[in-house]
Each structure stands twice: as structure tokens, then as C-alpha cells.
Amino acid sequence: MLVRSAILLLFASFGVLVYGLADRLTITGVGVLQEGAVELLGAQMAIIALAALALMRLGDRSFLGRKFLGWSIGTLGILGLSIVLCFEGLIAASVAANLTMASIGGLSGRTVLLVGVGLAILAMGIPASYYFMERKDRHLMKLGYACMLFLFFMLPFSVLM
Q: How many domains, the chain?
């Protein structure tokens, strides 16, 4: 639980950082994102990470403890939100173009690729923690393993795009 909390807090912090540095973003070969769109990207990352953290803290209370396809709704919500966070990293890795933002300057395509891959691998840590740390529940281990493999096999395709 500590590993999941730390990962989600890192994502929330990164989302706040992106929100704070939001400015007009020019992506080579893609186009221009206005300041509001960049703010929304940062806010989305922070809100998703905090929502997953809230689901984790609430545990299996009332409706979150109900089973859906054999797993609790709270656990499925945490895994679903971590998959969304991983997709954000995969999208950043697949774009991997030179970025220019007035508040921070320019970033090369390699840096964008490394940041995207780093975010994706960091988000894979949440399903991996269910696999490696939940030894009591075999079904939950299988679900974490399946999510982790799905995200891991998506990584090469996003890097090669």
C-alpha cells in the first residue's frame, strides 16, 4: 500500500508541476496546444492520481466492497485509473517530438520519449504491487499480473510509433 501511495503521489505532484508550468506548447510535427489545454493535462493527471489514492484510502467500504466479476469495485477502480495514467505516459512516448514551451524552453524528442516511458513504467508499478505484495488473494494477483503484462506489451508499440 505504501508503494501504491508513493507512486500516486508522484503522479499527483507531476500533474501539479505541469499545471503550474502551463504555457503555450508547440509540438514539432503536431501543432500548438494553448495554455488551457496544457493546464487541463496537468489537472487531469493530478485528479486521476488523487482519485485513485482516495479509492485506496476508502478501502472496501459500502459500495466499493461489492464484487464485480469476482473483484471489489475499489480495486478495479484503482487498477483502471492506473491504466489511464500509464496511457498518458504511453501517449507522451509515442509523440516523442521536440517541444517548445515558453515557461521552460525546449525539450528534445529523446527527453519526451524518456519522460513518457518513465511515466508508463512508474504507472505499471501499481498493478505490479498487486502481484508482488498481495500473496493472500490469488485472484487479485492474477488481475494485477494481467494488467501489468497488458501495459508492458503496449510499451514497445508506443515507443516505435
A: 1
